[in-house]
Structure formats: C-alpha cells, structure tokens
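Intended use. Records like the one below are meant for learning the mapping from a protein sequence to its folded structure. Do not use them to infer anything beyond what is encoded.
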Amino acid sequence: MNRISMMAVIFAGGLAGGHAAAQTFEFEGVPTPAEILEILAPEAMPADGFRRAGRSETPRRIVLLPPPTTDRHPQPATPQGREPQAAAPRPNPQPAISFATNFAIGSADLPSGLMPVLRAYGHALQLAPALRLEISGHTDVTGPAAVNEALSLQRADAARRFIQAEFGIDQSRIVPRGAGPREMRGDYPPDAAQQRRIEIRRLQ
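Structure written out for the chain above:
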C-alpha cells in the first residue's frame, strides 16, 4: 500500500463524523516523524515539514490491520467466579499506529526495539506543537483481569514517560490509557505476543 492509497483509506474510512471504525496501521520498520504526522495529523505538518521531519524517499510497507475485536476470549476466573472488569474509556475513533515490537509477558519494561519508534513520536510532537497523543496499552489474556488492567496502563505510561524524559514534552500532550485485553488484534490468537503492545493515536 503506497502513501497515496494509505491516506485515501484513512479519509474514506472513518474520520468523517467519527462513525466508522478507527483505522489501525503498522509500519515495517521505524516510521519517520513525517510519516507519523501524515497518518495522525496531516494538517499539523509544518510548511517545511517534509524537509524538517525527514520524509522517507524510500517506499515503506504499511499494513492496514483488521479492526480490533472485543471479548474474544474470557478472562480466567477466580475460585469465587469471574473477576469484574472495570469499564474502559470508549475507544478513540482517530487513526492509530501499532508496533511490531511487543512487551514480555507480565512486564511493562519498554522493549529496546520500541525506543527508536517513541523517539520518532517525540520529534513529531516537537514539529506539531498543537498535537496531543493518546497511548493505549494492551495485554493478552494471560493472567487475571485486574492484573491486566493495571499492566496495560503501566505499559502506556512507560511509553509516555520515555517521550517526556527524552524530549521535555508537556505532560498534558500525552495521555496514557489502559485497554487491558479488551481490544484484541483480530489477526492473532488472544494469547499471542502481538497482543502485548501499545498503540498511539491522536487525542481528540
């Protein structure tokens, strides 16, 4: 999918009125700040943004992921019965970018492969001072629901703190969100490593 057809999917697929399902994309490799802004906030690209943001001249493979599925797999029950799940915030309908670098089971430590991607987001935030981002943390179905709820938020917050520490971005511009295992990638089993991820989208 080239850049032109990718942008057509975004604008035809669900920004109008926010009624369609959000589109989620995955880059092959580390995106440039320009590529991030083209998906999440094309109008925020500065006038000389392609030069300043290092737009890639090499065609990059960008995958449009299937819509997330919810409650594909029940959470493990305790001896007293299934644990109650806290209501999650309504998913943000803006386009999102997911990452192929995944967290270890039960861990919120940032994988080393994720750090260059987060640095690209830091640069994108510097180029677009009005841009605000939501980082969603996700888990697989391994473990109790309450643990996964907390863990997903810890993953999102770890990414937020990394960007803020490296770039001095104001805290109000990056909002972490814990999705637990509720928004599964439909192209993988519910216990797959690809479920242990973060996704970043524009904050409304």
